[in-house]
Amino acid sequence: xxxxxxxxxxxxxxxxxxxxxxxxxxxxxxxxxxxxxxxxxxxxxxxxxxxxxxxxxxxxxxxxxxxxxxxxxxxxxxxxxxxxxxxxxxxxxxxxxxxxxxxxxxxxxxxxxxxxxxxxxxxxxxxxxxxxxxxxxxxxxxxxxxxxxxxxxxxxxxxxxxxxxxxxxxxxxxxxxxxxxxxxxxxxxxxxxxxxxxxxxxxxxxxxxxxxxxxxxxxxxxxxxxxxxxxxxxxxxxxxxxxxxxxxxxxxxxxxxxxxxxxxxxxxxxxxxxxxxxxxxxxxxxxxxxxxxxxxxxxxxxxxxxxxxxxxxxxxxxxxxxxxxxxxxxxxxxxxxxxxxxx
Length: 343
Fold this sequence. Notes:
By secondary structure, the chain is α+β, with helices and mostly antiparallel strands. The protein contains eleven helices and 15 strands.
């Protein structure tokens, strides 16, 4: 490399060294900086030039402190993310089921590097996620990127979708044909990524789980179908359980007092509540289906459906059928989920 190019790169290498190796607890003096530049990058310099370079980096926007001494010492003061913010991001990545184990490890290492080599070890998290069920779809990031691009460009996409069938084997659904879909929103819900939009096949709003898309979708040169005017995303998210979609209606619940935390966690703390001595009544707008019934059942009788009658009847039938299946085993019947839900 000729001298001119080395001089042009000197500032870049200086910034890299300070970013990777210094912080408030770790400083480098001018002699150490000059030795690193020479030994690792083959660039020779002297103290006056180095001091001028530091001034240029500060003018550029790097928060570098100069400690006057003989020789002068330097360190990076602040970064784009502070350690607390990086820890939160690392925890989110480590806990995310839609990110494969290999990709999660790589992302955490990259996030740690943003704190510099000296602080990276301190950012090691202690979240227990080794036994967590994770996706094995390594293409998730490319899939999400393609969907984002399609949303931003207002285009339809084409993709193949996988489902478990038979002996736990993955098969392409829709009779092996590609779905044509107009994506409008990406939603992270219950540790999974979903896309919400309009399905050409079903002629309705549909939900697909990202990690079950077989490969990077093809972005079609076709304008996306608009969402129905009556569709409200926030209402949809607030009334569905685990993104299972069905008709929403107002349901009255009678709940034991010790369920209040759980109920408000699910439906928000602005619920109108009529308190009694041992129970309380509240009304929630919710998609009434087997997922909602399962949520109610999980309270072991402490949450009861009071109305409407169809919800009461549907819940009783589900519990009775489950009891019959358990006490008197019978051939399993195949049940169809809502046609627009493709989990």
